[in-house]
Structures
1.
Amino acid sequence: MRHGHKWGNKLRGCGFRLTIGREAIVDILSHTNSHMSAEDIFFALHADSPNIGLTTVYRTLELLEKNGIVSKYEFGHGRAKFELTEAYGNKPHHHHLICRKCGTIIDYSDFMEDELAYLKKTEAGLGKKYKFTIHQHSISFFGICEKCGAS
Amino acid sequence: MRHGHKWGNKLRGCGFRLTIGREAIVDILSHTNSHMSAEDIFFALHADSPNIGLTTVYRTLELLEKNGIVSKYEFGHGRAKFELTEAYGNKPHHHHLICRKCGTIIDYSDFMEDELAYLKKTEAGLGKKYKFTIHQHSISFFGICEKCGAS
DNA sequence: CTCTCTGCAAAATGTTTGCACACTC
DNA sequence: GAGTGTGCAAACATTTTGCAGAGAG
């Protein structure tokens, strides 16, 4: 499997090396459903690979982000969160529901048809009007989750 | 004018005091079109009110955010950015276009009818399905601005 | 006059960087 | 073997906190 990963080929193709650490990090990311911070990943790694430092996690995430393999989100609870991009992960296209109290993040993939119609139109219009090349969009809803109780 | 501000009344109503610093900060925010960081506000303030510390800026912004007077955004260039909420500012409902290279933020208010239709449906559906009380939404497009050149 | 608000300095947090060694290709 | 990648420790930047004094109501 060492040389069969899509992301690995992508990195190699750009002249980067495939290392144990990089594999371990992508592996963690592809086996989780949650949105992990650099520290989360570091600790998850620590059980099996105690010799991978937090620095490497940060450097790897940066590299992966620059190569379109992970997405970085800053939802506002201090630390940035990461997940594999649609192209390299196994989550469907989705957006986020973020609880203002506990910080829980819920992925949702509902209503994507409606969204698509809206986005397509908007992206085209905005790109033209502001001469902006749009690469990505982010739609998030903030509020209070069931557990934290409505107010 | 000291006691006539909507935001001031809101604060007072909640038992908080109206101070020079708080007025100055809201004043700066209501006279700018850009998205300012705490430090930006601190320096903008410094000309007229050199005695207001950065700590106060942070504490005030936190208070204002908790009372729904300002919105805090973390777009990912390190520092958080603030702007008055729709209810207390004078910007129309809008969203953001963020340049990945230079960090420029463009507000846009176009296509709001399409958005409204999509959002209304989605919010209702999500709220119901995930038992989530939605307070706010955020739609952002990321890409490369005209100045930074498309790629 | 009471109690909140503030400035200052110090701490805490998340992230980045320099350097010598380790490992991939 | 050449050159990228890594761990460690230290540097950094932003934001938060403790405390004694200042100011609002």
2.
Amino acid sequence: MVPSNAQGLRSTGLKVTQPRLRILEIFQKGVQRHMTAEDVYRVLLDEQQDIGLATVYRVLTQFEQAGILRRSNFESGKSVFEINEGTHHDHLVCLDCGRVVEFYDAEIERRQKKVATEHGFELQEHSLALYATCAHKDSCPHYDKAAHAPLGTRAHHPG
Amino acid sequence: MVPSNAQGLRSTGLKVTQPRLRILEIFQKGVQRHMTAEDVYRVLLDEQQDIGLATVYRVLTQFEQAGILRRSNFESGKSVFEINEGTHHDHLVCLDCGRVVEFYDAEIERRQKKVATEHGFELQEHSLALYATCAHKDSCPHYDKAAHAPLGTRAHHPG
DNA sequence: TTTGGTGCAAAGACTTTGCAAAGGT
DNA sequence: ACCTTTGCAAAGTCTTTGCACCAAA
């Protein structure tokens, strides 16, 4: 049997509170896999939940520390959170529509470790994000959504 | 013959001003290859240069757009700039002392492109940073520098 | 009850911007 | 002289924190 969210929270030492349950549910519902604090806050507002933005930030950070969520920073200046399923992956971000694709490449992982070792280091973690455009914009089902800027309004492009 | 900085600036359409020349020199001198806006500002202060922090930010951004500098964001929340020598590389950041090592791995580059292509994208750019610790702290000549205090005393730690 | 969590507003860190004065060509 | 750039301070964006009140255990 799958443990309830309440149980899951308790096991991390966090008290089971409304804000924490609601926020966890939002991520589990999977409406949007990658969300900023503000994305979460907006959903809560829509749900008429009386939860402050500061609490959202606090809970997201706690969830990250508890291993429930994973934080990524891309180049947007905002932190993006997603459910941590234990399986590591990196991200490919579409510059046209903001869509985020997850990928895992064993060879890349291997080479990263090798690079660190060769330089006398012990690899602890890494952050890899690919920024790309749709190769076939005409047929891209997401391309039109560009105007709605799903992942962040700011056109703060990398590099 | 190597073009002067003044010529270089002119060729980008930027006027040749004291702040721009000074900042360009700082990067060329190579005292510190990777610098934040504040790092640059601190050097200018040391040099008794009367250049405002806002100007530093503006110039760094202009230089980035002109292709003179490259910006990286790592996970620090601050932008880090370095001279853009045209040769692409990624970064390995030491979690102990903050040292930044540059590396280039053709295979990683290749796989990144492949990943994007396989997902129907055209890779535009990427950001890859490895975070590692010294494998041999005792013999690491940089380890003691751990207390690398920037400028502003951002002494804010959780209670 | 006791401990920790929450909301709000204010503060903090980094960066950008408005505007009048100064500077480059 | 013209138009850009600068310095300063104020504003902006994302995030954290102080504190009084509230809720979970």
3.
Amino acid sequence: MHTLIPVSTIQGPVMKPALASCAAPITAPRRPTGERIAQLLALIDTELTVVRRVVRAGEAVYRAGDAFDCLYVVHAGMYKTVNVSADGREQVVGLHFKGDWLGFDGIAEGCFGCDAIAMDTGEVWMIRYDALLEGCSRTPLLMAAVHTAMSRELARDRDSMMAMCTLPADARVADFLRNWAGTLEERGLRTDCITLRMTRAEIGNYLGMKLETVSRALSRLARDKVIGFSEKGRRDVEIPDIAALSAFVDRSLAAATLH
Amino acid sequence: MHTLIPVSTIQGPVMKPALASCAAPITAPRRPTGERIAQLLALIDTELTVVRRVVRAGEAVYRAGDAFDCLYVVHAGMYKTVNVSADGREQVVGLHFKGDWLGFDGIAEGCFGCDAIAMDTGEVWMIRYDALLEGCSRTPLLMAAVHTAMSRELARDRDSMMAMCTLPADARVADFLRNWAGTLEERGLRTDCITLRMTRAEIGNYLGMKLETVSRALSRLARDKVIGFSEKGRRDVEIPDIAALSAFVDRSLAAATLH
DNA sequence: CGGCTGGTTGAGGCATCTCAAACGCAGTGG
DNA sequence: CCACTGCGTTTGAGATGCCTCAACCAGCCG
């Protein structure tokens, strides 16, 4: 039909190949996510003026309704975004780790649509949106990186919707743990013993179920040896084998379709 | 803290004010959505070379797994995006009307993550992604418009997640109809009698419930005079008053929280 | 110690799903 | 013209998965 022009040929002047993979992957083969994140942060640091901000557990990076001025890139820590409706319902709609952006949802309306809350102490990089627009004009690689980040978030949201609609409660919890372990693994962190920094109520809210259901699901997963609990409290979960979680999800689905 | 610099001052050279509102609304007060869409399409038409493609009902604009080359802007018709999992589950994750973009989810991975299916005959504008990147570098207004579109889609996904997690089935259907009527109203179309181009099964899939539940919910809404059915088949729904749908949602929530 | 927060587990209830039957409507072919 | 078929819809009755309510337990901290 038409020939595929590599993006790099039109993305403007010379770019360091070492930075290329934090943008859209049309140009290059896949690289480890940890590397991509390091390159993204390096690119931002060189192309933009960022204000580093340290946040403590429970502190809000921004609140729903705040005027949209800045985007934030997670440099350390873990964050939840909480959608708040007019009538007061609260819903955890996203979890964010190092390398993720916070605040994309504010662009369209000019104010943020949800709260972004730190779940432990961490650091975010504030980037003024007007400066980002300017930087994207100057540096196509940066623009591509922003597009990629938004695209990834859209894909994640879709997968969440699918999980909520098609998986029974136990499988949804298993899927949740699998995703969590996956993001840790991508960042080069230990996945065999992870600490959930969320209460059962928060997990349930995120997954669309009640806290008791989460607790029961975790108990069943532990009984089936798909996960384990560390002797130090029930807050830490041992995941000896991520594939076992996937297998559990598949088994749930097979059992369901098999009547 | 710091003064708010209007984006327009850094967005580059002169821009026609008439086109300004299709981008982020920091610069300008809110305008009617229909106007924004017209301006978006005009901007795209002047800044980019588009290939117009007519699609018929049931036809795929793209399929999950297809290589990501192009984005699409809806010029006419109505489309659904369907997420397909490895094990064959299908989930409608989005509905798209005139002025919406299709394919953002392909940017990050280099291939599309879902099917985009036309639900009636319509027309999409194909835009090569490399050309779009170049155009965004050239025209900051275009870049802002793309960001705004992605941001809006993120916000919509989150509202969907919230509706699925917090609303009972009847209210979820009411909310669905309200959103549908809302998008029609934004585009200057009639909202008092809308034709659902989806089967009950599709609606149910989208809302995370079974087709019988959708049917019952619609029957109850009709019994409560919140909606009506046209005499010609049950496929057309009469919505005399959109506010009545919102009121129904609120009533459901009030009844639920009241124990 | 005693209160508090978060977690686990059980019993019963309810919203939704499953299964099933019947209907309307459009298309098709005799 | 009518029978016949297929698909989508409606409605009912029973099953079930998750929620609600409640009791109890385990850490933690003043």
